[in-house]
Amino acid sequence: MAALFALALAVGGALALSPPSAAAALTEVTNFGYNPSGLRMYEYVPANVAQRPAVLVAVHYCTGSGPDMYSGTEYASLADRYGFIVVYPSVTRSSKCFDVSSPGALTRNGNSDPAGIVSMVRWEQQNRGADPDRVYVTGISSGAMMTNVLLGDYPDVFKAGSAVAGVPFGCFATTDGSEWNSACANGTVTKTPQQWGDLVRAAHPGYGGSRPRMQIWHGTNDDVLRYPNFGEQIKQWTNVLGVGQMPSSTDQPQANWTRTRYGGTGTTAPVEAISIQGGGHNIMAGGMAARILDFLGITGGGTPPTDPPTDPPPSGACRVGVTVNAWNTGLTETITITNTGSSAVNGWSLAFTLPSGQTITSGWNAAFSPAGGQVTARNVSYNASLASGASVSIGFQATHNGNTAKPASFTLNGASCTVT
């Protein structure tokens, strides 16, 4: 089970406990307080740490570790820029998955991982002077599940959270000691918003204070924690935060991303949800961390910080050539894509509308979906990179009802292409 959650992130090394210095480094903290499940704690304190700094808890995926999360994400470099502290909890059980299933995990002040993570936060407040009003959490996969759990168990500790490829609070609950819940993972656990909200409220009975804001990310092609979990999380957190199910705003901040906001239209909306069309389970990419910090409020809101370019080339930075060979009721179409921009494209999708009556039956050098209408062709593993001036040839076979025309227009990663 744990292997399903492995993400392609680099592994970092743990260092011995030492005070922060001009050369900031990942440091392990021991004896940080109540730690019923034997977690390890790592911290990154930047050399230019702010007075009363914010704390970001960055929670790893199954089979990962705190050092993996440190070396494989952008949070430490962003901490250098903004002066906040990053805490990286690390699981010691064999699966390297966080406990988001047991009754002890789904209860405030229980006997499992959430209690240990909150001890880490309190250690930062007591020993580093961290600001208790600026504590945030984000996580990937198992860490995203833990993000949901921490916001439910400790709404008075965390001000906001961001869950990347996770499931709702309580969805993974089991009573037999198992860490895995197949029904939840497969997206077959559905509840009403009220039922989901009641699960969160039951973790801290009688709590009447403010609740943390929530940001949710999910890829439509996630084959580990299926996409229906995205909608179930939206139902849960809109109910918990008392906002409507209808989005207050919808936009596309990047190609293939659809962002909906609930209860507000800006970066401080109570709930923000980003669906990534065609994204798999590992959707964490360059630039996402900056957008996460922007929602959480660590960067002060407004325009996300500048990150290495990950957006598609501008309009006109691609050229598409098309050749159609047709017969009685079938045809083949060869498409040549050329990157006419000045920088490489790393990961591409070509969108076009198939003429009426045509249906794709097979394809090569790309993954085509759906078979008709508005189609998107996505790169395969061996042709994801397209250097400036480079071309790639893809194609498909299709049936037709007499209409053998080629598509009229194409967009590469959302940018219009010249058609020849």
UniProtKB/TrEMBL annotation:
<dbReference type="InterPro" id="IPR050955">
    <property type="entry name" value="Plant_Biomass_Hydrol_Est"/>
</dbReference>
<dbReference type="InterPro" id="IPR010126">
    <property type="entry name" value="Esterase_phb"/>
</dbReference>
<dbReference type="InterPro" id="IPR001919">
    <property type="entry name" value="CBD2"/>
</dbReference>
<feature type="domain" description="CBM2">
    <location>
        <begin position="311"/>
        <end position="420"/>
    </location>
</feature>
<keyword id="KW-0378">Hydrolase</keyword>
<protein>
    <recommendedName>
        <fullName>CBM2 domain-containing protein</fullName>
    </recommendedName>
</protein>
<keyword id="KW-0732">Signal</keyword>
<dbReference type="Pfam" id="PF10503">
    <property type="entry name" value="Esterase_PHB"/>
</dbReference>
<feature type="signal peptide">
    <location>
        <begin position="1"/>
        <end position="24"/>
    </location>
</feature>
<dbReference type="InterPro" id="IPR008965">
    <property type="entry name" value="CBM2/CBM3_carb-bd_dom_sf"/>
</dbReference>
<dbReference type="InterPro" id="IPR029058">
    <property type="entry name" value="AB_hydrolase_fold"/>
</dbReference>
<dbReference type="InterPro" id="IPR012291">
    <property type="entry name" value="CBM2_carb-bd_dom_sf"/>
</dbReference>
<dbReference type="Pfam" id="PF00553">
    <property type="entry name" value="CBM_2"/>
</dbReference>
